[in-house]
Recover the amino acids of this structure.
C-alpha cells in the first residue's frame, strides 16, 4: 500500500522524462560454464567450458515517463570456437583429465522486462541524476553441442575415447535491483544498472560416449534431466552514449552476469537412478550501440 501511494505521489510531482528509445547493440560475448554431475554408482562427470569468440546482439525499448521507467530487452549470442576441460571419474578407470579445443554450434537467447519508479536527485540543476529501484523478470535459454576425442593409457591398455555431449539450459525468475541514470551534459549520458535474480533452472543433456579398448567398442547414450528452484544470479550493465543528432545517439555498452546453484539432488536419467549436480555460470559482453528517439 505504501509503495502504491509513493508511486502515485511520485507520478503527480514527476520531473523526469525521456522519449521512447529504441537501442541496437552488437558486439562480443565471453563466458564460462562449470558443472559437476555425480551419480550414486560412483561416476562423476565434470564439465568446464569457456567460449571466447561469440557474436552478441541485443534490441531494447525503454522510456522514462513522469518518473516511471520501463525497459524491454531481447538478446542472443552465437558461440564460435572455444575450449573445454572435462574430467571423468569412473569406477572401472582411474581419473583422467582431458583438455581439447572444440568447434561448437552453441547459441543462447535471453529476454528481460524491467520496471521502476524513481526520483530526480538533482532537480532544478543543469544536469540530471535519476535513481530508481527496479523489479522485473528474466528468462534465458542456451543450447550447446560439442564433440571431442582423445586417446589415453590405462595400465597396459590403450583407450580411444570419443564424446559428443549436448546440453540445453533454461533458467527464469523474478529480479530486483536499482538503476542510476546520469545526464552530466545534454550530449553525454551514463547509465548503471544492477539486478539480483532468484532463478529456477532446468537442464537436459545427453552424455554420449564411445570407448575403443583393444578393438572392443563400447557405446553409451545417457540422457539426463535436472531441475532446481534454488539458484541465484547477479547481473550488471553499464553504458555510455554521445549524441549524434537531435534524435540519434551512439555509445558503448558492457554487461556481466554470474549464476550459481548449490550442490543438490534432482538429476534423473535412463541410466541414472539418482544424482546430484552443481553449476556455476558467468559471462560478460562488450558492445557498440546505436539509439533512436521514436
Amino acid at each position: 500500500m505504501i509503495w502504491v501511494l509513493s508511486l502515485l505521489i511520485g507520478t503527480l510531482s514527476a520531473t523526469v522524462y525521456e522519449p521512447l528509445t529504441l537501442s541496437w547493440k552488437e558486439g562480443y560475448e565471453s563466458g564460462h560454464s562449470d558443472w559437476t554431475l555425480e551419480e550414486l554408482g560412483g561416476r562423476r562427470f565434470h564439465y568446464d567450458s569457456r567460449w571466447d569468440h561469440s557474436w552478441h546482439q541485443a534490441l531494447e525499448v525503454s522510456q522514462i515517463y513522469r518518473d516511471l521507467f520501463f525497459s524491454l530487452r531481447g538478446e542472443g549470442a552465437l558461440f564460435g570456437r572455444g575450449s573445454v576441460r572435462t574430467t571423468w571419474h569412473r569406477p572401472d578407470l582411474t581419473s583422467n583429465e582431458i583438455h581439447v579445443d572444440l568447434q561448437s554450434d552453441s547459441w543462447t537467447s535471453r529476454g528481460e522486462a524491467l520496471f521502476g519508479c524513481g526520483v530526480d536527485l538533482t532537480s532544478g540543476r543543469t544536469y540530471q541524476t535519476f535513481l530508481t529501484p527496479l523489479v522485473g523478470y528474466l528468462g534465458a535459454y542456451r543450447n550447446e553441442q560439442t564433440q571431442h576425442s582423445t586417446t589415453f593409457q590405462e595400465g597396459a591398455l590403450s583407450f580411444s575415447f570419443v564424446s559428443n555431449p549436448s546440453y540445453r539450459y533454461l533458467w527464469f525468475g523474478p529480479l530486483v535491483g536499482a538503476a542510476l541514470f546520469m545526464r552530466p551534459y545534454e550530449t553525454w549520458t551514463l547509465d548503471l544498472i544492477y539486478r539480483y535474480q532468484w532463478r529456477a533452472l532446468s537442464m537436459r543433456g545427453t552424455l554420449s560416449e564411445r570407448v575403443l579398448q583393444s578393438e572392443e567398442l563400447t557405446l553409451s547414450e545417457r540422457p539426463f534431466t535436472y531441475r532446481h528452484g534454488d539458484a541465484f544470479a547477479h547481473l550488471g550493465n553499464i553504458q555510455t552514449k554521445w549524441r549524434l543528432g537531435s534524435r540519434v545517439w551512439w555509445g558503448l555498452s558492457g554487461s556481466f552476469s554470474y549464476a550459481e546453484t548449490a550442490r543438490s539432488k534432482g538429476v534423473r536419467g535412463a541410466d541414472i537412478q539418482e544424482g546430484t549436480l552443481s553449476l556455476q555460470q558467468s559471462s560478460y559482453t562488450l558492445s557498440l550501440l546505436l539509439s533512436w528517439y521514436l
